[in-house]
Amino acid sequence: MIVGDLCPLPPTLGLLRRFFESSPATQLDLHFEALGGPAERLSDGSADLILHYVDKTDPNLEFIDLLEVRLIPVAADGILRFPITRSITPDQMRTYVQCVIRDSVRLGPSQSYHLVEGAPHWTVSDQSMLVRISVRRIKIAMASGCPAAATWAIAALRLNAAARARASPA
């Protein structure tokens, strides 16, 4: 089984726990992959099941929608040199470093997922590292007073915080 990079871990692991509590004799061989890797593992037969986004138009796939994941671009307040609006353009972001997750595709070419063409970028292995680097980079930029040092990243910060809040007992 492959768990993809965009699966929030608390609800995903909760689903697995409930399944294995009702099927204790089932053995699990769990792997984590990013971006196009889960679909590639399923396609090449090295995985029987993936928990990840899929192309719902692919007639070779059977799928069940388990949960919805929203991605939200984030930046620390005051980092950008222009007002934050819903209509920020790629040209406005071109001078900022993008922190992106490395695609775990092995056989085919890696796809570009919403990268700003020509912008500098850092590549990391997973969302945990993306969050750590993004938070650290924002803190450094704010402390140094250098907005150009800020990192623009997908909203793993809000996503992870929301998942932790749902997983915590009241």
Structure description:
It is a single chain. The protein is α/β, with parallel strands linked by helices and 170 residues long. It has helices spanning 9-22, 37-43, 90-93, 127-144, 156-167, and strands spanning 2-4, 31-33, 50-51, 97-101, 121-124, 151-152. The protein has a 3-stranded parallel beta sheet with strand order 2-1-3. A 3-stranded parallel beta sheet has the order 5-4-6, with helices on one face. Helix 1 links the parallel strand 1 (2-4) and strand 2. It is elongated, with a radius of gyration of 18 Å. The model is unreliable at 140-164 (pLDDT under 50).
Short characterization:
With 170 residues, the protein is of the alpha/beta class. Helices cover 32% and strands 11% of the residues.
Describe the secondary-structure layout.
Elements: E1 2-4, H1 9-22, E2 31-33, H2 37-43, E3 50-51, H3 90-93, E4 97-101, E5 121-124, H4 127-144, E6 151-152, H5 156-167
Parallel strand pairs: 1-2, 1-3, 4-5, 4-6
